[in-house]
Amino acid sequence: MSAAIFQEAFDHTVFLATETYKVVVQGDTEDKSFQSKGFTSPTELAVFAIICLCNLAFFEVVKAAVFNPMSKVFLKNKKNLISFLFSCRECMFYTFSVFCAFRVFGQERWFYDLKYLWTLMENYETKPAQKFLYLVELSWYLCGIVRLYIEPRKKDYKQMFVHHVSTILLLGISYCLHQLRIGVVIYTLHNIADPLLQAAKLFKYCGSELGATLLFVPFALSFFVSRLILYPMLCYYTIFFGPGYQRKLYYKIEIFSMGLLCLLIPIHAYWFYLIAKIAIKSIRGTKKLEDERSDSEDEYVKPDKKTK
């Protein structure tokens, strides 16, 4: 029974991935609708499990085959090896995520105008490419929780843990409720600035302060706009124009979701405070450009030695 479920799930995963390839690469816009079951069937859960395993395995292979050889060529200080490999992985995924988000969802009106986010919600069908990318994104944050535990812990471990758990719950709930629109906007706003940050770190690890500075400026601006302007706007439109407001009744799951949405705002504000500190110190010339919350070998928390 379980073998049949995983065989069906594997075939389903391959179908979703190949359809995504057609949409992203070949520009296929044919509407091949797929009714999401919202994790209510063993097959649906098995599909997600396969995507998570592929996520973990793929980046381990890429790290061994690509990122490690790159570090031997470009990395200036071997003490930054762990950070270099981490930034390579993050930069690769977030660049892929942002590109695919605009390529697959870019033709949707609600993707650019939040006032259309909660209109015409009676059709819960979604294209295979849209569903697959959504599950890949959800798997990234779930795998991120695993990586937080198995990889050396950073100074912002607690903030990252709360951030990942909140994002997983938001994306998971929206998927189960067939409200992929808000989930897509949430993860796009979260990801859009990250490729610039990771690329700036890579330049720094490779010894190019100029390249890091040139990338840090657009990163800071995009982070401020996406997470401290557009994201609070998303919260506003969800609270005052969402399904609960329209029916004049908020369900408990909706109240919980709105609380999670708002929980991320102070975390974003804290991170931007650190970004502003970096910028001020760099302008004053008192410190080289570096990430206050995670940089070089000092970004990792050294475990306390227990004494008997």
TrEMBL record:
One of its GO terms (molecular function) is sphingosine N-acyltransferase activity. It comes from the Eukaryota. Its main location: membrane. It is found in: Membrane. GO terms for biological process: ceramide biosynthetic process. Residues 289-308 are annotated as: Disordered. Keywords: Membrane, Transmembrane, Transmembrane helix. The chain crosses the membrane at residues 45-70, 91-112, 132-150, 210-237, 249-273. It holds the Pfam family TRAM_LAG1_CLN8. Residues 299-308 have a biased composition (Basic and acidic residues). It is a multi-pass membrane protein. Residues 82-284 form the TLC domain. This is Ceramide synthase.
